[in-house]
Amino acid sequence: MSMQIKPILAALRQHKAGTVLIALQIALTLAIVCNALFIIRQRVAHLSEPTGIDEANLLVVANQWAGHWSPAQVDAQILADLAALRQLPSVRDASPSDGYPLSGGNWDNFVMRTPEQLKPTTDASVYMGDEHMLDTLGVKLIAGRNFNASEIMQMASRQVVIPPVVIVTKALADHVYPDGSALGKPIYSMTTTPSVIIGIVERLQRQNVSNWSKPYAYESLLWPIREDTDGLYYIVRSKPGQLADAMREVPKALYAQSRMRVFDPKNGGSFAQIRQRAYDSDRGMAILMGIISVVLLAITAAGIVGLTSFWVGQRRKQIGVRRALGATRSDILHYFLTENLLISVGGVLAGTVLAVGINLWMVTRFEMSRLSMGYVGAGVIVLLLLGQGAVLGPALRASRVSPVEATRST
Amino acid sequence: MFAYYFDLGLRSLRRNPALTALMVMAIGFGVAASMITYSVFRAVSGNPIPDKSARLYIPQIDGWGPQQNSKGEPADALNYIDAMALMRAHRATRQTFLYGVSMSVLPEGSQSLPVAANGYAVYGDFFPMFEVPFLYGRSWGAAEDDSRAAVVVLSEEFNQKLFGGANSVGREITLDGHDYRVVGVARHWDPKPRFFALFNGSGFQDPTDFYLPFTRAMDVQVNPSGNSCRGHMNFAGWNDWLQSNCVWVTPWVELDSASDVSAYRRFLEDYAADQQRAGRFAWAPNVRLRDVAQWLDYQQVVPAESRISLIVALGFFAICLINTIGLLLAKFLRRAGEIGVRRALGASRREIYAQYLIEAATVGLAGGVFGLLLTAVGICGVSLLFNPEIARLAHLDLSLVGLTLTVAVFATMAAAFYPAWRAAQVQPAWQLKAN
Lengths: 410, 435
Prior knowledge:
The complex is a heterodimer. Chain A is of the alpha+beta class. Chain A has eleven helices and twelve strands.
């Protein structure tokens, strides 16, 4: 571009206030949009994490026993319930459980590699179910074997039962035995009694996926236990495409077995509902940050249009003089585009510093991760283009100013 | 003069409709984003018991030790042994120990299905301590605590559900197969956040259904909704579990003066030291005594989402205001000629300044009205943006309407300080000459 920058800088000095305001607005917009986009990406990444289970065909019933039940009565009822559920035409399989992935509530136990160690090796989400649990969840067994029916134990309220066998996720196996030798080895879960790893599943999400759980992502264990306490969950896997039928049939079948129970409507449901509930604040943050970013960019663009139009109006006479002295339309157009580019570059430089500063503050204050410079780079390009696009209209109008304007008195 | 300037301001709004619309929209969006996020923040960060929050304390005793506690802090609740020791020592004006329970109730009529109900096992002091208002009957007292009485206090909402809102005092209800006599019905009382029961709760759960005596709950072995244990778990039943290091009891004490507070703190330290001497704790005393505000802060009751979104919205508003400064500057200086004439006809700088500030205020007011509209729409859709437990607390009340308009007007006037000053600086001679 043959445009000289010096005269533009000289002209900018004539309206410092407007220049500073546009630069400041671009800087702040860059800072906020970068951080907002970064928040969106993190939240979307979090809510897109797979669970490792057959989500499309799963439903969960939160079942609480009503009235007074002895553990033996509860156990008999669970067996009857499961038999009834597994016979339903729309149901492929069903399992009792103490929890389900993404439930938010959590049963987690510390896991140790040796019996006497006090400091835990890690923390595992605890699933208790029977030999149908793997098939019901639809998790993939990548080593070893499933539980068999004779290994299923019973556990009453406030009783600790440590089964001799356990199935773990690959993440947990690799954490406790980093050399990959976990199969057949013991783990100790808040006890001196070993549980031998008989199977490893590829992936099973934890019950709780909030911030504190992150260091133990996907570390879960399955115990062959039927829990005969105040209540339990029934996890039901429908035959492909028959989830809606199963959702209708399952509660009816359970009430037909016994009416002395309560289903918690805010807990369980189809897995789509569970996923929705688990990630509602992540989704909300992403939507809010998205709306704010879009409106912010629009307002900044509109502000640039407004102020540049004013400048063009103010300088009609000078533009006329320049045109009369031989400047082409394209010269005038380039003048305003370059002017905006200079201001924008100043703005994005300040904005980059600000964006990183805000992010560092959020890192210390809200345990967020570091902003990757890719976001800042993308933000810089977006804002430079936005500035050029916004200034194009007023600049074109300026370029159409006729040289005759030079002779007018205003 | 004010009315005249206001009228001028309204006229001027119509003169540059595009520029005006732009400013009104910027202010409207900015103020609405701030108000929507503020309405949520206000709901989650409020003081749930303003007149007593400085007199209610939650003691914590480290029963896990430095190897197993979290970052050196004692657990968020007490184990049964320590809770009962504090209960028996009774060193506070009032004290309660509590835990959340989930039980089932069979409503009257043989055809009905049982319903789930959530409540708390508490001591009788709970009600006067936390100033629970009563609709019918009364709370129970120390005598019922001691006699482990099968009594219950219902919430107004639960009384409505079970008894259609009638005075149910003296009636019986069956919780998990055991009968309880209703001694009182609490008038609607649901402090947000629910500061007294943050162990295993977000602080924003559904309203409570009932309260029953802690001592009775122990007798019939009502399980807590949650507990947290460390080390080796090797209990075989209820009594073993009570003696374990599992924490689940939330204690609260009412302390009336600073000296009472320091005396109680000393008592906690002495107790922990005794436990160390007795060999139960293998570590030095590690206790805390936090009041309501400190407890809410420590438990991070205000979700990070709520803070982040408020901060981002305020940043957004700041940008909208900078935008407005630029546009006001353009709008005012475009009328330099007009200002010159007015100045030449005798208007002082002060008057010009006042005129343009008032004109800005009219822009602000228009922006505020637009912002109010957006805020109302936003609060309807707030459940899309926040967790439903929290979203339902946000509402548009008179104070928020007032705040929206006030903030819009004053922020716009603040934005107009510089443009109006520039307008007042216009040299009349210069303008008249050019014309």
